[in-house]
Structures are given as structure tokens and as C-alpha cells.
Design a protein that fits this description.
The complex is a heterodimer of chains A (about 110) and B (about 575). Chain A contains three helices and five strands, in the order E-E-E-E-H-H-E-H. Chain A has about 110 residues and is α+β, with helices and mostly antiparallel strands. Chain A has one domain. The relative contact order of chain B is 0.10. Chain B is an alpha+beta fold. Chain B has four domains: about 120 residues, Sulfite Reductase Hemoprotein, domain 2 (Alpha-Beta Complex), CATH 3.90.480; about 160 residues, Sulfite Reductase Hemoprotein, domain 1 (2-Layer Sandwich), CATH 3.30.413.10; about 100 residues, Sulfite Reductase Hemoprotein, domain 2; about 140 residues, Sulfite Reductase Hemoprotein, domain 1, CATH 3.30.413. In chain B, strand 14 and strand 15 form a beta hairpin. The chains are: A alpha+beta (about 110), B alpha+beta (about 575).
């Protein structure tokens, strides 16, 4: 995983993401351990403990049918998880040049 | 090169402009598809890990990008026929989101592919003699070619037969399948460089010699994080030594190229490290030691390959040029399109037409399945079913009768494909950028869209004249920003997008690397900055001077002031 996308700050919060093996679509780890195509279903972890979550999740990625597990830091000013970096916001909400491909019907304001 | 491939004559009518496959080629493709189908099944079952599977999928053009798998399909030397284009449209409709993206390597990419569909997609491609081999990995990639090859009035020699020979020579070449890094070859037959020959690992310019075809050879050019204009290695390489000499060149690279550092692994780094003369000496020594008879490219082999190419019957009526002139006088919009979007043909009464894939505010290089079908229909009606893709991400119909050009233009207008901006500020190269690419730092496409919308006025575009803007979303430079008259490079600053401007680049015969103008700009200032650069140029240019000429005459200072003095 590219270091740029996997960096986190102490005291922050993150969600866990991957790509689905079958179709490559982006998925987010939900609270029940399932994977969702919507970031608003993602469980938000404290950065203090997220490395252990990522390690455990990566170990079961073949069984889960996902590849490339890593953590994404999110802003702490939104109820819907909004990634800190523009790269991860594009992953979460879809390509900016095709609004019709947006992953959420209602995209939180100011997420681009 | 496979002797079987060369020995088998074509049984059907050869497609105009490219090599006709036979049963040997088709059997190979079928086996390759079934091999990959098995590899995908083993990946899905867990028998293959992602680390084991990744190099296998890349050998079949399949990347895992930001949102999905991306399949890059090869278009050898940028030429395909109408039935192939229709199959690409089918794939876009059936397996993707109804569009494809033409690349700066004359290939096409589909951005929303499912892994489980990929073997079926490759099987459908194989039905029209297409594949995704050599579009990824550290091998000799798809050989690119002049988009006006075999048609241009300024051409000395049609290079496509030799491009096909290089394709066959390099396909599954056992010695060159695991090079230190990817390896890109471009070939042209015109003294006017339209293939960026000096920015390729090897650039070849074919021309007639005293005793047959010869080649001028450039080596070690490239973009990426270390942009270098290629070295002129030698002149007048005889055709019969083409494969032997390239074999020697790449053998030296394979032996001495660095494998310890991905950023120093391209041949350009080796050529710089050895020096041009040092590299030339090693190549000459290898060349001298080779069994030249084994690698000789005899005229009969070239003739056999040439025989597998269809040739167009060029028989325009004698008044074709006169009728075109009349249509231009009667229709100002058509006249403008002819000025910008056509290229002189070698045959009387014919002309090459460039179909811009850069509509105002659009995504450079994208085409919907309906547009792909429309292009196929128009190619059959107007240009012998032959279609060319340019490294500028446009489409060319090579052989259009001049008296039929107005009808073609009208049909293009109905398909939304009649933008009159080739070579102008709206004809922007842009990589997919951060909207799709997992390597990108910043988005390229939105900047291109905003620029083409800002400069949409056709009068303004013509007044500005020849100005090439090229945008890359990261330092890998797939958008060729180093060679842009104005280059734009996306950079990442703490997770946000910024854009660095370079001026003075050129991919043509006067190849040059653009120079950084100043600090990177935030996204919302970048389009205004380009507008300030254009304004400064319009104020200071002399008659007939291109943007590049003005920059070279006056230097960077006034342009730097135009962008940064107001900040």
C-alpha cells in the first residue's frame, strides 16, 4: 500500500478499506465485520488501535474476498466519515468527473 | 520471430492499414485467453495469492485501479478496423460503463472492469484479433506509430510494416519479457516527428536509403521523474540489421540496466550513466559478436508481412479538390474544421481527417460506445474501414476523398465529434489522473475540462494558434507534461492537490523538456494562471510566432510575472 494513503495522526480516527476481489470495487469495513460499498456504513476506529484491526482484517482478506486492506484517516468534523485526503475522498464518493457514478446518493457537503 | 507466423499466407481480404491474422495467430490468442481464464479461477479460489497473481494479470493488461479493475487493450501501432472498433463498443456497453478512454500510447482503457468478466472480455477481443498483451509489465510495450502513416504527404516511407515486424519480434520474446523496466518503442516514416521519437526508449525514423529502407535510431529518451531527450545513436541502419541491432541495444540494457532501484531502471538512466559513446560501444560490440545471419531481416520476410496488409484503392474523381474548395467557401464552420482537423494526403483528391476527442468541457480521449460505433460506421463509409488512434488521444480517418469530406464532417457533427481544435489550446492531453489512477497525486481531467471550457470560443482558439497543453496527475508523466508547450503536473501537498507549471517543452523534432515556472499552485488558481500565460503571449508575440517561439525568444521571466506577480 502506498504510504501516502496509509498515514495517520495520533489522536485521530480512521476507517478500514479494501477493494473487492471479484470486481475491484471499493469497500469499507462495517461494525459487524462485513464489507459495505458505502463509506457511511464504515465503522470508525480510533487511530490508537487501528493497526491491530488492519492486521487482523488483512489476514482474512482471501476469505472475505477483498484485496489491499488499509486504513484511511477521516475528518473529525462530520457525522458521515469523510476522508482527510482528496485521494480517499474520491475513492469514497466516486470520480469527480462523473457525478452519475457517485457512491452515495447524498454526498456530504464540502467533501471534494 | 515465429517462422510459422511469417510462412502462413493470408487467406481472406486483408484489412486496410494493419496486419491480417491467420490461424497460427488466432490459436495463440485462444490459448492465451484460456491460460488466463485458469489463472483467474485459481486466484478466485485462493490457490494464487494476490502477490502471485498480480504479475500474471498485468501481463494481460489488467490493473487494479482506484475504483475497479482497469483493462488496457492493445492497438498495435495505433491502427484498427471498423469491426474491431465495434467490438470495443460492445465491450464498453456490456462490461463497462458505456465508454472507453484512448491513451497517449494509442491504446484504449476500460475503467470499470470486473475480474471475473476479464477472460470473457479477452475471448471477445480475440474474435476480432485483439488482445491486451504487452500493455503492461516490464516488457517491450505496444509499438507506437505516426497517426498519418501511409497517408501523409510529408512521409518518406510507410513505417507500419516495420512496426508489425517489431510487434511480432517482441511478442513473448524470451529474453526481453522481464526487462529491468517497461520498454517503449516508437516508429515514424516522416522527417516531421509526430511520434515523440526522442522521448521513447527507442525511437526509429524510417527512410529510403540508397539500397533500401534504412533507419535513424534514437535511444534513451523518456519522461517520468527523470525527463531526458533521447540520444541520436546512429543513422542509416540497414533494414536487414534492424532486428539484430535492436536485439543488441536491448541486450545491453538487459545486462547493465539497474534492477535495484525502480526509479533508475529505465534505459535512459543507463545511457546517461555510460554516456552516449559508452553505450554505443557496448551495443556495437554486442552487435559484432552476434550471429547476424540468424537475426537478419531479409527482404522476402518484409515482403511477406507487407502482403498481409490491405491497401486502399485510392481513386478519387479528378474534381475532388475543386469540390472540397467549393464546400469550404459555402460553409464557414466546415472551412474552420478543415483548417484545423485535416492533414495533407500523399494521393491527389484525398485528405486525412482528425476526429477530435476533446469537446468543449469534455474528458480528453473518452468516447462513448455510441461514438465508437459511429466512428466504425464512418470509417467504413469514408475511409476503407481503417481507423487510427493518435498519441494525442484523437482518432484519424486516414484516407478520405476530398469531395466526401463535407459529408463526413456533417456526420461527425451529429455524433458530437466535430470539435475544430486539433493542435489548438483545446486539444489537451490529460492522463486519467486521481479520478481513476492509483498512482496519481492530483486530478488531471477537471483541469483539462475547465481549460477547454474557458477557451471554447473557436475564434479565440484560432487566434491563440498552435499551443499544446499537457497534463499529468503525477510525476510518471503519462500526460506528457514535460513535452507540453505548457505542462501541468499535479502534486500532493499533505493530501491536497497542487499544480506545477512547466513551459517550453516539445515532443516534435525540436524536442525539449519544459522548465518549471515557479511554486505549485492550488487547483482553483491553475486555470487562471494558464489564462494569464496566454494573455502574456498574445501581448508579446510577433507575427506568426507560436507560444513556444515566444517563450524561447523572451524566456521565462515575463511569463513568471504574469502568473506570480498578481498572487
Amino acid at each position: 500500500m502506498d504510504v501516502r494513503s496509509n498515514r495517520r495522526e495520533a489522536g485521530g480516527s480512521s476507517v478500514v478499506t479494501a477493494n473487492r476481489l471479484l470486481d475491484g470495487r471499493i469497500v469499507w469495513l462495517a461494525g459487524d465485520g462485513a464489507w459495505s460499498g458505502r463509506i457511511d456504513a464504515a465503522h470508525v476506529f480510533s487511530n490508537d488501535g487501528i493497526e491491530a484491526v488492519i492486521d487482523a482484517t488483512a489476514r482474512r482478506q482471501q476469505a472475505d474476498g477483498v484485496v489491499g486492506v488499509y486504513g484511511v484517516q477521516v475528518r473529525d468534523d462530520s457525522t458521515t466519515p469523510v476522508p482527510v485526503t482528496v485521494r480517499e475522498r474520491i475513492r469514497a464518493f466516486g470520480p469527480t468527473v462523473h457525478p452519475e457514478f457517485a457512491t452515495l446518493t447524498e454526498v456530504p457537503p464540502d467533501v471534494r | 520471430m515465429s517462422a510459422e507466423i511469417l510462412a502462413a499466407p493470408s487467406s481472406g481480404i486483408a484489412p486496410v492499414g494493419h496486419y491480417a491474422y491467420d490461424q497460427v495467430d488466432r490459436a495463440f490468442l485462444h490459448d492465451r485467453v484460456e491460460q488466463f481464464r485458469d489463472q483467474v479461477a485459481r486466484r478466485l479460489s485462493g490457490t494464487l495469492s494476490e502477490d502471485e497473481f498480480k504479475p500474471l494479470r498485468l501481463m494481460n493488461g489488467l490493473y487494479l485501479q482506484l475504483h475497479a479493475y482497469m483493462l488496457r487493450v492493445a492497438i498495435p501501432y495505433g491502427i484498427l478496423d471498423s469491426r474491431q472498433m465495434r467490438e470495443l463498443a460492445n465491450i464498453a456497453r456490456t462490461y463497462d460503463r458505456d465508454y472507453g478512454h484512448f491513451t497517449t500510447r494509442q491504446n484504449i482503457q476500460f475503467n470499470w472492469i470486473r475480474l471475473e468478466d476479464t477472460p470473457d472480455i479477452l475471448a471477445r477481443l480475440a474474435t476480432v484479433d485483439m488482445h491486451a498483451i504487452q500493455t503492461s509489465g516490464n516488457c517491450i510495450r505496444n509499438v507506437t506509430c505516426d497517426q498519418f502513416a501511409g497517408a501523409a504527404a510529408d512521409e518518406l516511407l510507410d513505417p507500419r510494416v516495420h512496426a508489425e515486424i517489431l510487434r511480432q519480434w517482441s511478442t513473448l520474446h524470451p529474453e526481453f519479457s522481464f526487462l529491468p523496466r517497461k520498454f517503449k518503442i516508437a516508429i515514424s516514416g516522416s522527417p516531421n516527428d509526430r511520434v515523440a521519437a526522442r522521448f521513447h526508449d527507442i525511437g526509429l525514423v524510417a527512410k529510403p536509403g540508397r539500397h533500401g529502407t534504412v533507419f535513424d535510431v534514437f535511444v534513451g529518451g523518456g519522461m517520468g521523474r527523470t525527463p531526458i531527450v533521447g540520444v541520436h545513436l546512429r543513422d542509416n541502419l540497414p533494414e536487414e540489421d534492424l532486428l539484430a541491432y535492436l536485439e543488441a541495444m536491448i541486450r545491453v540494457y538487459n545486462e547493465y540496466g539497474r534492477r535495484d532501484n525502480i526509479y533508475k531502471a529505465r534505459i535512459k538512466i543507463l545511457v546517461q550513466a555510460l554516456g552516449a559513446e559508452g553505450y554505443r560501444e557496448k551495443v556495437d560490440a554486442e552487435f559484432a559478436a552476434m550471429d547476424r545471419a540468424r537475426y537478419r531481416l531479409p527482404p522476402e520476410t518484409v515482403a511477406a508481412i507487407r502482403a498481409r496488409f490491405g491497401t486502399p484503392a485510392l481513386d478519387a474523381p479528378s474534381d475532388a479538390a475543386e469540390r472540397l474548395a467549393g464546400a469550404r467557401r459555402a460553409d464557414a464552420a466546415f472551412d474552420r474544421w478543415v483548417r484545423t482537423n485535416t492533414h495533407s494526403h500523399r494521393a491527389a483528391g484525398y485528405i486525412s481527417a482528425v476526429i477530435s476527442l476533446k469537446p468543449d468541457g469534455g474528458i480528453p480521449g473518452d468516447a462513448t460506445s455510441a461514438q465508437l460505433d459511429a466512428i466504425a460506421d464512418l470509417a467504413e463509409r469514408f475511409s476503407f474501414g481503417e481507423i487510427r488512434i493518435s498519441h494525442m488521444q484523437n482518432v484519424v480517418l486516414g484516407h478520405v476523398r476530398q469531395d466526401e469530406l463535407h459529408a463526413l464532417w456533417q456526420e461527425l457533427g451529429r455524433a458530437g465529434l466535430a470539435s475544430a481544435n486539433i493542435g489548438l489550446i483545446g486539444d489537451i492531453i490529460a492522463c486519467p489522473g486521481l479520478d481513476y489512477c492509483s498512482l496519481a497525486n492530483a486530478r488531471s481531467i477537471p483541469i483539462a475540462q475547465k481549460l477547454s471550457a474557458r477557451f471554447a470560443n473557436p475564434d479565440l482558439q484560432e487566434r491563440i494558434g498552435d499551443l499544446q497543453i499537457k497534463i499529468s496527475g503525477c510525476i510518471n508523466a503519462c500526460g506528457h507534461h514535460h513535452a507540453g508547450h505548457i505542462g501541468i503536473l499535479g502534486v500532493d501537498k499533505k493530501g491536497e492537490e497542487f499544480f506545477q507549471l512547466t513551459l517550453g517543452g516539445s515532443a516534435a523534432s525540436d524536442a525539449a523538456i519544459g522548465q518549471i515556472l515557479g511554486p505549485a499552485l492550488p487547483e482553483d488558481s491553475t486555470v487562471d494562471a494558464i489564462a494569464h500565460l496566454v494573455d502574456a503571449y498574445l501581448v508579446h508575440r510577433t507575427d506568426g510566432e507560436r507560444f513556444l517561439d515566444t517563450y524561447r525568444r523572451l524566456g521565462a521571466a515575463l511569463f513568471k510575472d504574469a502568473v506570480y506577480a498578481l498572487a
